[in-house]
Design goal:
The protein has about 500 residues and is α+β, with helices and mostly antiparallel strands. Among the domains are: about 180 residues, no CATH class; about 140 residues, no CATH class. It contains 16 helices and twelve strands. It has a seven-stranded mixed beta sheet, sandwiched between helices. A five-stranded antiparallel beta sheet has the order 1-5-4-3-2. The longest helix has 25 residues. The structure holds zinc ion. Zinc ion binds next to loops. The site of zinc ion (ZN) has 7 residues, from loops. InterPro entries: MULE_transposase_dom (IPR018289).
Length: about 500
């Protein structure tokens, strides 16, 4: 049956008012202690402590097309300690020079002190000032940003510093530079301890866990943009997403203080697919996000005629609560409408049950049989087999006879199942058609696709979801346009 609800889909301007403070989850305290203890140079790059969100969505900016975050190029990519650091060499700016000198110090196993650091001058001396004459001097080159090494004594007469722990010149930029190739690979999980170990084996010098962590975070920020900035970018991204994808509905809910609470996205293509072409079935689930601000990812998927998964809506919220699910479902209802034939399948989370009851009073909420089974503590494989037989039974008679067997072999499971309500989990007793979907596995498959992205900043995560969907639609359209099988041969008799 086709659900004719497109008339319900209308463009509604965001209801929320201009947020007054941070747009991120909670406070921004996490970044306050991020100062590098080894900092002693031009590394100052303070994060905004209190970023006011101005004229929220009241202007329609043209922002760059995706990707939103272009990786910032790492300075001194092809660094060579012997050929790069010598008199007469020039660097793009003071930052590039500083990074190179720090890398050299790490590689040589010496420490230095900052001396004369001004916007036009750069000078470093060996940490053991009184017994060692090692030094380097550089100056700004004319009116340009470039810096040129004007003087250098490259001979250390002091003891090597590698015996001291936590190399003081290995700031976050140095560590990020070293880790850059590894950080670009989303599939790799870099732990602080591993970074410490890598630096030790590569440079024969130690850094602290904090140094490793700060370097990694800074490096990720260079590649992905900061999690904080990503929240600020989200409304721009959504605005453009709606503009470029007809029928797309996006919403952000912020609390009274303007702190981000919830996000809803349903691409126009997904809504049209569901309303016009899919069976009235939605499988919903939540997955936990990682990264600095954590959060929960909400997803609803439908199933097409080839039993392929079609993601319909996507969301991010603080936690899996009744309020979050209800708000998210209320926007979902605007997209697809309530319908007496609509079936939801999810786990037995009370928040989902409440949201479906409140927002889709006409629809029916069935539970995932696999999740239900996990609560039954079924004794053995045979009982599990029996359980699935009961769930999938087509007739009330088949259901009853197998339930009688279950009552004999494991009565506690029988009572739990009766308590849950057979109409919620049994195919024979479901008031609507379950279309052979007994579990919420399909939505978990979509979550599995994004498992590598759960640490990404919010806008990048959203973009990844939209890109994945766009890619799927593109590929299916290509297949549909070219496949020979679609051209039904004319039979001749
Ligand atoms: Zn020295």
């Amino acid at each position: 049956m086709i659900i004719k609800t497109m008339n319900l889909v209308k463009k509604i301007e965001p209801k929320f008012s201009k947020p007054e403070s941070s747009f991120t989850f909670g406070s921004f305290d996490e970044n306050e202690n991020e100062q590098n203890h080894c900092f002693d140079g031009v590394d100052e790059n303070p994060q905004p402590i209190h970023h006011k969100w101005k004229n929220f969505m009241s202007f329609k900016p043209d922002i760059p097309e995706t990707p939103l975050y272009k990786s910032k190029p790492m300075i001194s990519k092809h660094y060579n300690k012997d050929s790069d650091v010598k008199i007469g060499n020039t660097f793009d700016n003071q930052e590039a020079l500083d990074l190179t000198v720090r890398l050299k110090a790490l590689e040589d196993g010496y420490k230095f002190l900052s001396q004369n650091i001004t916007p036009d001058r750069y000078e470093r001396k060996c940490y053991h000032l009184k017994q060692c004459a090692w030094s380097i001097r550089a100056r700004r080159w004319g009116d340009t940003d470039k810096f040129r090494i004007t003087g250098m004594n490259n001979v250390h007469t002091c003891p090597k510093t590698q015996t001291y722990p936590n190399h003081r010149n290995a700031n976050k930029k140095v560590i990020a530079h070293i880790l850059n190739p590894k950080l670009k690979d989303n599939r790799r999980v870099l732990k602080g301890k591993d970074i410490e170990q890598d630096i030790l084996s590569q440079y024969k010098t130690s850094i602290s866990y904090q140094q490793a962590w700060r370097g990694k975070e800074y490096g990720l920020e260079q590649i992905r943009g900061s999690p904080y900035e990503s929240f600020e970018m989200l409304p721009y991204y959504l605005h453009n997403l709606e503009r470029k994808n007809k029928g797309t509905i996006t919403r952000i809910k912020a609390d009274k203080e303007g702190v981000f609470e919830l996000l809803f996205i349903a691409l126009g293509a997904s809504i049209r697919t569901f309303v016009n072409h899919l069976r009235p079935l939605l499988i919903i689930d939540a997955a936990h996000l990682k990264g600095q601000y954590k959060g929960t990812n909400l997803v609803a998927v439908g199933m097409d005629g080839n039993n392929q998964i079609v993601p319909i809506a996507f969301g991010i919220c603080k936690g899996e609560t009744g309020l979050c699910w209800s708000w998210w479902m209320s926007v979902l209802k605007e997209c697809i409408g309530d319908n007496p034939n609509l079936l939801f399948i999810s786990d037995r989370h009370a928040a989902i049950a409440l949201a479906v009851r409140n927002e889709f009073p006409l629809a029916f909420h069935a539970v995932c049989c696999r999740h239900l089974m996990m609560n039954l503590a079924l004794k053995n494989k045979k009982t599990k087999g029996l359980y699935w037989k009961i769930c999938k039974a087509y007739t009330a008679e088949e259901f009853r006879s197998n339930m009688d067997i279950l009552q004999t072999v494991q009565s506690d499971a029988y009572h739990k199942l009766m308590e849950a309500g057979p109409q919620r989990w049994s195919r024979a007793h479901c008031p609507l058609i379950r279309f052979n979907y007994m579990t919420s596995n399909s939505v978990e498959s979509v979550n599995a696709c994004s498992v590598l992205n759960i640490k990404l900043p919010i806008t990048m995560l959203t973009e990844t979801y939209c890109k994945m969907l766009q890619k799927w639609y593109f590929e299916r359209r290509e297949v549909a346009a070219n496949i020979e099988a679609w051209k039904i041969p004319t039979k001749t008799y």
